[in-house]
Amino acid sequence: MYIISMDEAIRFDWDKANTEHIARHGVKPEEAEQALENDPVDLDYEVVEAEDRWTSIGHTDRLRVLKLIWTLSARVSASERNRVMKKLAVPKFATEAEEAKWWDEHMGAVGENLIAAMKSGTAHRGGPRRVLQERRESRNITIRMPLADLQAAREMAQEKGLPYQTYMKMLLHQALEKERRAS
To answer: Which is nearest to 43 in space by CA: 137, 149, 115?
Structure first.
């Protein structure tokens, strides 16, 4: 599912593949949208094939709990990359039925990750609305740095499949968090 910001409004953009995917899990698009509108808990952020993806747990208006994987139509701040829960070793699946069965069998681990994220302060509420608000609160800056450092950042970012400025923001954020924890 793709989420598109339109000022304060959020528009959900469903392509055929995503609609068919969630249907195989017994979920309707309107249920997923409700779960993301009902103040979900954001558990994970990662970049997959150069696409920003979040994992959230939310509930529908009828209190059906859903695990949701979603993306914005544009890239987001690097700070999201630092809110990653302990990863499950998720295998490759031959079918979506096999995938659904695996997730059902590992819901305990998902719950443990949720509790750990809540205790560590890395679980956040708000889903797409929170991410869009954080994006609006960022500011462009200009800094001077040695060309060798810039080139090294570009090379490392390319290895990770990230834009180099996003990678540099991520590194700066990590360094600031480390310093904050040390003091």
So the answer is: 115
